Task: structure prediction
Amino acid sequence: MLRPIKILIETNLFIAFAAVAFMLANAILLDIPFTALSYLSLQVFFSTWFVYQISRWVYYKKGAYTNKEELVVQWFEKYPLFNQITIYGSGILALVFTFFLQWKTIVVLCFAGGISVLYPIPLLKPFGISTRLRDFPFVKIFLIALVWSLTSVVLPALENNISLLERRDVLVVLAAQFVYILFITLPFDINDAQVDKASGIKTIPSVFGIRFSKITALLLGILYAFMLLFFFMLENWRSINDIYLTEATILLLWFLLILLQAYTFLKSDKMTKWWIKIVYDGSMLLYFVIVFFTKK
Result:
């Protein structure tokens, strides 16, 4: 049972499905019909798959994976052709589906996609500077949160011709999901703290320590819980004649937060990387399931 899940994770299909699920969950929160998001869903799936595949491939070719027992290394070495086909294929399909989107969506998509693609690449290397975006102190986690929140909230809103000036609830959920992505990304840095410290990469856990990072995650979770409550009240007030978010939605999302908090404190610095991915990337899939089945 775990083997297929591991393969989904190491081929980055898991995170691609999670990206689409999280975007659709936000669409539900904002009362955006799925019918308006068909091409966007396909674009987000293939672009996410491409970005993660190309990043992994770059790290692999540069010898960043020192542990030959890692499944990702074994996968690249056993199936190099498959990985190249998926990289080119996902990139081409992402580009194709981009042309079916609204121009405003494409502008924001290019901005978010640019950050994602350039994230692992040392752009200034010709000028003698080998620093990548991800190497700037503490910036990695905020770049990830920015890209994911824009992709999951702003893109579906723009694709549905929603004005961000008229629908302030979009900005509220954008801010909230920025905090949520910070909350579920910090445990990855906690898990990598020793490796990042040895590599000289400055993240919150590698500089300030694991205990401080866990407390930060706790505060982010509490902040998100209050932001979620505010959004829940705002959204139902906005559509007061047709309330569509139920109490079960917020209660179950709070319960999900509690479970993630417990895992962060008890396991995040001890578990293998693929378990971290199952729990925190998987939380976006569970987020969608909760919102989808509790919507009125």
In short: The two ends are 34 Å apart (CA to CA). The domain at 2-294 is CATH 1.10.600 (Farnesyl Diphosphate Synthase). The chain has one domain: 2-294. The chain is about 75% helix and 0% strand.
